[in-house]
User: Fold these one by one.
Assistant:
Number 1:
Amino acid sequence: MAAACLAAQRSKDPSTQVGAVIVNETDNKIVGTGYNGMPAGLDDQFPWKRDGEEPLKKKYIYVTHGELNAIMNKSSADVKGCTMYVTLFPCNECAKLIIQSGIRKVIYLSNKYEKSNETQAAKRMFDEAEVKTEQFKTTCSEILINFHECLQ
Ligand SMILES: Nc1ccn([C@H]2C[C@H](O)[C@@H](COP(=O)(O)O)O2)c(=O)n1
Ligand SMILES: [Zn+2]
């Protein structure tokens, strides 16, 4: 989950940064990472605004979700049987992708949009497809990365 949080920090979304990391079934090796961003090469042309009347002037229609990017960036042939660590509970569209890609477990950090239709639909699809969902629990509240200690 720390790696998912680190990936999230690369997002340019000013309000919600979502990071996702996929690990394989056999040895928990990372086989994909992603974060929410505009489609490749379109970074500067599209709005990050979340509010307003006009959908075309808001981010939602354009942004690529962290989960989709993690699946698209996979380094293995497929992600069947894998687990996804993600900083926010997936939406309905990502749930479909997760199910279709064969990921079997989703470990999430936040579920701040729990009441939304998108999250409820996602949960329903995961349950029906027997994709396990579990909130990440830890007693460790932070991981400090000290670049100086890494310098050898
Ligand atoms: N499972 C999710 C849910 C949302 N996102 C992205 C889409 C937006 O960039 C952002 C949500 O923005 P907000 O409505 O909180 O301002 O998070 C995602 O990548 N994965
Ligand atoms: Zn999504």
Number 2:
Amino acid sequence: MIRIRNATKTFSSFKAVDNISLDIKERETLVLLGTSGCGKTTTLKLINRLIELSAGSIEVAGKNIQQQKPEELRRRIGYVIQGAGLFPHYTVKENIAVVPRLLGWNKSKTETQTSRILEIMGLSAQKYLWKYPRELSGGQQQRVGLARALVTDPPVVLMDEPFGALDPITRSSILHEFRNLEALRHKTVILVTHDIQEAFELGDRICLMDKGEIQQLGTPKELVFQPANAFVRRFLQERRFQLQLQVLQLAELHSYLQPHLTFTDTNIITLPGTASVLEATQLLSVATYPRPVIALEATATTPALHLGISDIMAAVDKYIQTLNL
Ligand SMILES: Nc1ncnc2c1ncn2[C@@H]1O[C@H](COP(=O)(O)OP(=O)(O)OP(=O)(O)O)[C@@H](O)[C@H]1O
């Protein structure tokens, strides 16, 4: 969907983005992750030409972006920035209608779609359409920012720290909703963050950058279990164990599990094999008595199993040992 080849951006003599190449697949969520100043935002803005390339090339849907007018290009690429970036003197309705107006939509289509997308974002159209950004909370502004980026249903959406300005609780609830948002499911999303947890929760793949270069591009599991170099290892070090539990699915532990087959407990929580090991351990550590047990659903090739927390942790240990980390 997006093809970046040898992209470089130089400010004076400083290389903010240094000869990076990557492909972003259709419908994937790719997270650009890294510390402040590593070139994430510059990379994002190169894609919609808010910043022009110094060298290299970028194609979106098979077309070289240099051969299109920036306004044309941006009509097909949604853009969400930290703090939502709403126009303060426009109402919510007017803010969301900016791109539809550029596209020449008529009034009735614009109004219907504006209300629809606002409702999808969890804001009542009746209540919020006429409000100004200053009358909204940070979380609500962020939702309007997302609505504005999605109202014309662009195939590509760029997001720059979209949840960065929110308090942890609002952020966690928006993150959860975001992952399940049907309106985003079929889109190619490139999201910038410096938050490791957010990257691992949202990214199908993560592109970890440092000093304008790509250090590793891979799935969350690849980054955590097969770090490409010392930088990646160091970057994830502090959260490593939690991330390992987060990216591992229960089914992947099957051959390392030595379960109790005859549990009589009544406090049984059934999980599918696709559930993360982190989710299972969190469920098991919430209650103390009666100690809950995880029942792992049977598949065509594996029997159902009953597991306590020690069974799971022992299996995780064995799994990690076999990878020789
Ligand atoms: N217009 C500019 N002129 C000069 N230098 C710039 C310009 N824009 C960015 N830079 C520099 O390029 C580097 C990369 O900036 P960029 O905004 O891409 O980083 P980032 O990884 O997104 O960081 P952050 O998470 O802090 O936003 C930084 O050192 C920054 O100071």
